[in-house]
Amino acid sequence: MRCAEALALAAISAATLVLFSVFPTLDIWVSRQFLSEAGFALNTAPALVTIRATIRLSVLAVGLFSLAMLALSLRHPAPLGTPRRVWGAIVLLYLLGPALLVNGLLKELWGRARPADTTPFGGDATFTPPYVVTDQCATNCSFVSGEAAGATALAISLAWMARPLPSRLRLPVATLGVTVAVLAATLRVIKGRHFLSDVILAALFVGTLAAAIACLMRLDRRR
């Protein structure tokens, strides 16, 4: 089942790239909804700054907690009732997704300028659609969103951790994770730090990777 999900998510990712190639100005239109005479004024709103910091800390905390549980599983095979392979899958997802694929490769090599830095929003850089590798940004660029990727990894990790819980608790935990991921992605767009395509594709890439890891590590097994 997870293998089919990975293929489906990969296909959706490709379709999303096609969508933004057919309608490249969709990114501009969405970001423009949050532009004022002062630019992306919400970028410095104190409440949003606090929410963003809380999400970033939560993403880091879940990653470090999972790493600690993986280390503990060397002595106790299923810390907190969660099998060792699940803790290993979470750590692997964090390392391969947000750390390597997103922050290590795409954000450093793609060269897409952030919305606030492009000419449609008063900057000097040229707007480019997400499928174009360019030179409009030198490092830590817009494609894709690292924070959306991290929050997606957090959401998936919480869902995996929640499997030993009673069924009445699994849905609230999953809902919490999805809420955090959506909020993180939304903040990056309304603050002018990422285009819509950056956050959608970040979530899809991490989701595809998670499904592939779940397939290869057979996370559907109970033990």
TrEMBL record:
<feature type="domain" description="Phosphatidic acid phosphatase type 2/haloperoxidase">
    <location>
        <begin position="89"/>
        <end position="215"/>
    </location>
</feature>
<feature type="transmembrane region" description="Helical">
    <location>
        <begin position="199"/>
        <end position="219"/>
    </location>
</feature>
<dbReference type="InterPro" id="IPR000326">
    <property type="entry name" value="PAP2/HPO"/>
</dbReference>
<feature type="transmembrane region" description="Helical">
    <location>
        <begin position="57"/>
        <end position="74"/>
    </location>
</feature>
<protein>
    <submittedName>
        <fullName>PAP2 superfamily protein</fullName>
    </submittedName>
</protein>
<dbReference type="Pfam" id="PF01569">
    <property type="entry name" value="PAP2"/>
</dbReference>
<keyword id="KW-1133">Transmembrane helix</keyword>
<feature type="transmembrane region" description="Helical">
    <location>
        <begin position="6"/>
        <end position="26"/>
    </location>
</feature>
<keyword id="KW-0472">Membrane</keyword>
<feature type="transmembrane region" description="Helical">
    <location>
        <begin position="169"/>
        <end position="187"/>
    </location>
</feature>
<feature type="transmembrane region" description="Helical">
    <location>
        <begin position="86"/>
        <end position="106"/>
    </location>
</feature>
<dbReference type="InterPro" id="IPR036938">
    <property type="entry name" value="PAP2/HPO_sf"/>
</dbReference>
<keyword id="KW-0812">Transmembrane</keyword>
